């Protein structure tokens, strides 16, 4: 309709101009007046409808401007005002549709039907009729209709519409498949696990509809400011007429007073911000939530699954001295293949990540909750808790020392026995997410003043995680009621955010001004109290959501101040007779266009918060494989740093010589290649003049310590001074171990943050 009105008013203006050219002034006036009357009638109908709802719209000023122009026989002015109003409506429709682009794409992609097996026959059925347990076929290019489990060996899925990830991902048989993703590969079969109404995409659609229909408090505030202009406009117009005696001046004031910059720029910016979030895999339920995000100053985090990965992973493999950590990991993982326990699977995953070839276990016996034993090749291997393994092996002092260290570091472990002797242990921890420290830094840059971690875990574990992540306060051993009380107390310091996993943290998410569910499914998100759902299981997207919200609010405020300031200036110029009505109409439209297109900037990332260019998938995979390949060498450095002094001089010399040879053959070329080839590429993707200076300095320290060890290994004495020499060598090894551990952690975090997936 708006585009039709624009076409009619434009045609009327041009037709009148043509008639005027042929000296048909009377006919031209009739054509111009007719188009103006058409807009006046539409405005009058809208005003009456609003008055019946006890609302007063700013369209009243536009109606008065057209009516005044017609009463003063300013037909051309009335026609130009009508054209500008119709153009403004068409522009509003276009910009709103563009701002809602990502939201509309999500709605348009909602699956309507599914291919279901009935025996061996395929039938196309409405998606609402799919029930859990149904076997479905998803053809190439189709949207997955419901949540389910993949039955085929592998599927290639395009998850960009949900998560913003640009590259297709591969899923293995048995993995969960979410509704709303697109099959980017060959057709595959899946089993439905949720009905359509409870699936991920259905929840997303409900959230998107709510976001499109909501109005933020900032928008409502803008409406009130715009309405305040009505008496001000009438006052200025009346004063201009009174002091000049010229009613045309009053008309000019009315023409430039329509507050389109205020009533259009703010909604467009808010919708654009919500759409930008959706593009990045962040679903914001409504405009009010987006505005609250921008005001947030206090942030609460859950620990498990939020700051940490939420699953155990292998931290280290410790050897009692008889076998290397790599050999122990291979034996333990070979045996662990026989157990479905989460700890056993973590051991297997760690071994496969290092490329170890595992053997098939035999004669396996598992004691639930304790451990398992079996034969791996010619070796009898046990893997399990300390009590389980210690009961079948002679006591050794090494075990007591390791147990003390585990208590100090708040880690758990499974002990390994080989051929009836305590051989070592695998240490586990719920690792801090790689992106957590950076995410917290970005949140502080976005305006968060205080970050508090809330957890029911033990104080020692919570303190360690909080210290590593960089939070301001850790509150541990909390009950759900304690978490609620903490969030309510935090409200005294500003708008509060609570980030949780969207499943177990519903009360806390509801208590905060804005609840953010991290990595939650759409069905869960729709039923939980979270106002924001981050579909990607990455904590740095929370920081991005706050950044987008802050930028959106800033752009909206800029539009209000700049647009209304220009409108008020134009009113004063019109009142003084410096801006005729015809020119004023054009000026007002120019202001509208400039402010509305400024609001559309909220669709972009902005130059200050533009994300660093990502690495492609192949680069990231290669870097991770390189690091995994060096893990055995790092384990060997750590073992030497811990116990080389305890070896006999001849054994220590042989061990050190072998270690130095590996450092020079494997580690040093790897670090040199990183310095000369990889780091220049990474620097192009990061901000700053020399963003990798600190890591390059670490490279030089690795080179120095390796060279020092090489020289020391060549000069180990065989006389009585060997003990003092080995102590000095151990100190160098400990420094190298520390530097390598820190350096590899920094690189893994960097690669993770630059990963495009």
From TrEMBL:
First-listed, main subcellular location of the protein, grouped into a coarse class: membrane
Q: Which InterPro entries match?
A: ATPase_P-typ_cyto_dom_N (IPR023299), ATPase_P-typ_P_site (IPR018303), ATPase_P-typ_TM_dom_sf (IPR023298), ATPase_P-typ_transduc_dom_A_sf (IPR008250), ATPase_P-type_domA (IPR059000), Cation_Transport_ATPase_IB (IPR051014), HAD-like_sf (IPR036412), HAD_sf (IPR023214)
- Per the UniProt entry, the signal peptide is none
Provide the alphabetized UniProt keywords: ATP-binding, Cell membrane, Membrane, Metal-binding, Nucleotide-binding, Translocase, Transmembrane, Transmembrane helix
Which chemical reaction does it catalyze?
Zn(2+)(in) + ATP + H2O = Zn(2+)(out) + ADP + phosphate + H(+)
| Ranges where the P-type ATPase A domain occurs | 110-209
State the EC number(s). 7.2.2.12
**Catalytic EC class:** translocase
Where does the Hemerythrin-like domain lie? Answer: 620-752
State the similarity comment. Answer: Belongs to the cation transport ATPase (P-type) (TC 3.A.3) family. Type IB subfamily.
Q: Which NCBIfam families match?
A: ATPase-IB2_Cd, ATPase-IB_hvy, ATPase_P-type
Q: What is this protein called?
A: P-type Zn(2+) transporter
């Amino acid at each position: 309709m708006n585009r039709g009105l624009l076409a009619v008013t434009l045609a009327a203006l041009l037709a009148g101009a043509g008639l005027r050219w042929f000296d048909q002034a009377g006919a031209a006036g009739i054509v111009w007046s007719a188009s103006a009357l058409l807009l006046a009638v539409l405005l009058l109908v809208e005003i009456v409808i609003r008055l019946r709802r006890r609302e007063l719209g700013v369209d009243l000023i536009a109606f008065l401007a057209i009516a005044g122009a017609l009463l003063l026989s300013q037909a051309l002015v009335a026609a130009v005002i009508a054209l500008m109003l119709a153009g403004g409506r068409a522009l509003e429709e276009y910009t709103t549709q563009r701002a809602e682009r990502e939201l509309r794409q999500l709605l348009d992609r909602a699956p309507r039907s599914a291919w279901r097996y009935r025996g061996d026959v395929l039938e196309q059925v409405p998606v609402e009729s799919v029930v859990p347990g149904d076997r479905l076929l998803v053809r190439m290019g189709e949207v997955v209709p419901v949540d389910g489990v993949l039955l085929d060996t592998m599927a290639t899925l395009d998850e960009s519409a949900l998560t913003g990830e640009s590259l297709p991902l591969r899923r293995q048989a048995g993995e969960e498949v979410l509704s709303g993703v697109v099959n980017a590969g060959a057709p595959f079969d899946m089993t439905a696990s949720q009905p359509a109404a409870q699936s991920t995409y259905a929840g997303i659609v409900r959230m998107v509809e709510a976001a499109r229909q909501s109005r933020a408090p900032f928008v409502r505030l803008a409406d009130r400011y715009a309405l305040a202009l009505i008496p001000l406009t009438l006052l200025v117009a009346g004063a201009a007429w009174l002091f000049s005696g010229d009613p045309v001046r009053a008309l000019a004031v009315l023409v430039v007073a329509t507050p389109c910059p205020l009533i259009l720029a703010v909604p467009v910016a808010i919708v654009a911000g919500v759409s930008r979030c959706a593009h990045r895999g962040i679903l914001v339920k409504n405009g009010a939530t987006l505005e609250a995000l921008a005001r947030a100053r206090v942030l609460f985090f859950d620990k498990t699954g939020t700051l940490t990965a939420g699953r155990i992973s292998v931290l280290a493999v410790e050897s009692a001295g008889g076998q290397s950590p790599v050999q122990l990991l291979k034996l333990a993982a070979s045996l662990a293949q026989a157990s479905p326990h989460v700890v056993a699977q973590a051991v297997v995953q760690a071994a496969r990540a290092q490329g170890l070839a595992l053997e098939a276990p035999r004669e396996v016996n598992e004691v639930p909750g304790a451990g398992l034993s079996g034969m791996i090749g010619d070796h009898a291997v046990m893997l399990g808790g300390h009590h389980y393994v210690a009961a079948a092996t002679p006591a050794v002092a090494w075990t007591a020392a390791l147990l003390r260290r585990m208590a100090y570091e708040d880690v758990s472990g499974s002990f390994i026995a080989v051929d009836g002797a305590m051989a070592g242990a695998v240490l586990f921890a719920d690792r801090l997410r790689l992106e957590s420290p950076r995410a917290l830094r970005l949140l502080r840059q976005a305006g968060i003043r205080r970050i508090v971690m809330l957890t029911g875990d033990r104080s020692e574990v919570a303190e360690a995680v909080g210290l590593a992540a960089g939070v301001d306060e850790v509150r541990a051993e909390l009950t759900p009621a304690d978490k609620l009380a903490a969030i309510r107390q935090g409200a005294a310091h500003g708008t509060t955010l609570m980030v949780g996993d969207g499943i177990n943290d519903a009360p806390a998410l509801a208590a905060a001004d804005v609840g953010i569910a991290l990595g939650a499914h759409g069905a869960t998100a729709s039923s939980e109290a979270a106002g924001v759902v981050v579909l990607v299981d990455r904590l740095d997207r929370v920081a991005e959501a706050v950044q987008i919200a802050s930028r959106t609010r800033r752009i909206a405020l800029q539009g209000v101040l700049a647009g209304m300031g220009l409108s008020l200036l134009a009113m004063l110029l019109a009142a003084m007779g410096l801006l005729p009505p015809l020119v004023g109409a054009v000026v007002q439209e120019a202001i509208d266009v400039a402010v509305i297109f400024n609001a559309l900037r909220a669709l972009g990332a902005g130059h200050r918060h533009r994300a660093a260019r990502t690495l492609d998938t192949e680069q990231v995979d290669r870097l991770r494989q390189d690091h995994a390949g060096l893990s055995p060498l790092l384990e060997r450095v750590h073992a030497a740093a811990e116990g080389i002094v305890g070896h006999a001089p001849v054994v220590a010399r042989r061990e050190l010589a072998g270690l130095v040879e590996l450092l020079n053959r494997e580690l040093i070329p790897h670090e040199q290649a990183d310095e000369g080839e990889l780091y220049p590429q990474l620097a192009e993707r990061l901000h700053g003049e020399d963003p990798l200076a600190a890591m390059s300095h670490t490279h030089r320290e690795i080179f120095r310590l390796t060279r020092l060890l090489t020289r020391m290994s060549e000069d180990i004495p065989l006389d009585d001074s060997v003990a003092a020499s080995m102590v000095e060598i151990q100190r160098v090894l400990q420094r190298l171990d520390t530097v390598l551990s820190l350096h590899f952690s920094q690189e893994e975090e960097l690669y993770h943050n630059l990963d495009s997936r």
